[in-house]
Design brief:
This protein has about 130 residues and is α+β, with helices and mostly antiparallel strands. It is built from three helices and five strands. The protein has a single domain, classed as Histidine kinase-like ATPase, C-terminal domain (Heat Shock Protein 90), CATH 3.30.565. About 35% of the residues lie in helices and about 25% in strands.
């Protein structure tokens, strides 16, 4: 399992597809339980953002997750939606006191802090997370 691609319609019910992919990858690569938690949270946050913000819960639009394992013990997950993207440099800081009580706005912060590398592509409609597992 060096790579895998899954696509599904934009419904929160399909978060289980992302969870299953992470489970399968982590089992295959014998990922430590702590790293597993980081990967699961980051990938499901990215998928949740793609479904809710990128595709605006439009079931006619899809979310794609591409997984690639590199030779240097890195697991790459790229989550793409069919939305317009967003300005990822203009996100409010969720740790700022005025944002602490807000319900949303923590997804990108979590992805950034739980992955080893985070890159946005396609004007923000694709996010790549890299996890170093050894």
């Amino acid at each position: 399992m060096n790579s895998q691609v899954v696509s599904f319609s934009s419904s929160n019910d399909n978060l289980v597809v992302a969870e299953k992919l992470v489970d399968d990858v982590c089992r295959h690569y014998k990922v430590d339980e702590d790293f597993y938690g980081n990967i699961l949270i980051a990938v499901t946050e990215a998928v949740n953002n793609a479904i809710n913000h990128g595709n605006r819960l439009d079931p006619s639009k899809s979310v794609t997750i591409e997984f690639v394992a590199s030779d240097n013990h890195q697991l790459h997950f790229t989550v793409k939606d069919q939305g317009m993207g967003f300005d990822y440099n203009a996100l409010p800081d969720p740790t700022d006191p005025e944002n602490i009580d807000k319900i949303s706005g923590r997804g990108v912060f979590l992805m950034k802090n739980l992955s080893d590398e985070l890159r946005f592509n396609d004007s923000g409609s694709a996010v790549e997370m890299v996890f170093c597992v050894n």
